[in-house]
Amino acid sequence: MSDSIEKIKCLIIGSGPAGYTAAVYAARANLSPVLYTGKEPGGQLMITTDVENYPGYPDGIMGPQMMEDFRKQAERFGTDVRMEMITKVNFEGPVHKVWTESGTEIHADTIIIATGASAKWLGLESEQRLANKGVSACAVCDGFFYRGMEVAVVGGGDTAAEEASYLAKLCPKVHLLVRRDEMRASKIMQQRVMNTENIEIHWNTETDEILGDEAVEGVRVYNNKSGEKSVMPVKGFFVAIGHKPNTDIFKDWLEMDETGYLITKADSTKTNVEGVFASGDAQDNVYRQAVTAAGTGCMAALDAERYLVANEIV
User: Fold this and answer.
1) Is 252 a catalytic residue?
2) Nearest Cα to 41, choosing from 67, 5, 21?
3) What pTM was estimated for this model as a whole?
4) Tens of pLDDT along 86-103?
C-alpha cells in the first residue's frame, strides 16, 4: 500500500489533442480534471512541424506550439496538468485505481484514456536525424509539402498502400518499398496501387540509409534477395509500417483488438469497464488525425460527465 491516496473525480491519462480537449470540456463542467501527461507531453504532434489541416489556424501552426495552446486552454479552466506517468492500473470493482511513477495511489471516479499511439520506425540513425526534414510517418499530414517531388513509401500493408495512393495524387513518382515479394494489404488496396501509373513497387527491397544532411536528398536501398544496392533521388521518405497504441498498461482490464487498440462501444467512448472511457489514437486506428482525436476527447468528457450525473457522483 502506498503512502498517499488521492481521490479524483475525473482523471485524464495522456496529453495530445484528445487528452487536452477532454480536459477543456471536463474542466468547464466542473469535474476538476487532473491530467497526467505521460512520457511524451503533447503526443505525436510534438514531432510534427507544420500543421496546416487543423481548423482555426489559417496560416498553419507548429505542432509543439499547437499543443502548448491546447495545454494553456485546459489550464485556464482549472485543469491540474501533471508532468508524470501513470505506470499501473487496477479496474477491479467500482473504484478505479491507478498508480503514478512516484508511487501515488489515485482513486478516480472516472478515467479518460488518451494515451495515443506511436509510429513504428525502421530504426535507422538517418531516419531519426532527418525526421521532419523529409522523413514522415503520415502522408495525409505532410504529403502536401512534397507536391511535385519524387517520394518513397516503406511498407506492404493497407497503411502503406493508402499513403502511396494519396501521395500519387500530389507527386509525379512514388516508390513503394516492399520487403517481401508480396503485399499484406487487402486485395482492393493492392489493385489500387498496381493500377496507379506513377506508383512503382520495388519488391524484396529494404532501406539501407536515407541520404542527406539538412534534408532528404535520396534513399539507398538494397534487394534482400540479390544484395544489389541502388539510390533513389527522393525528397520525401514516408514510413508506413504501422502504429503501436500506447495501451500496454490496460491489457489485463480493457478489451482491445489484436494490435492493442482499445475497443469502445458503438457511438460512444465507453470501454468494457464502467466509468472508463477511451479517446484519440489509443482507440482509433482508422483516421489518426489531430482533429478526430480532439473530437473523441470531447466525446469522452461528455460521456464521463453523464456517467457521474447518472451515478449521482457530481
Assistant:
1) no
2) 67
3) 0.82
4) 999 999 988 899 999 999
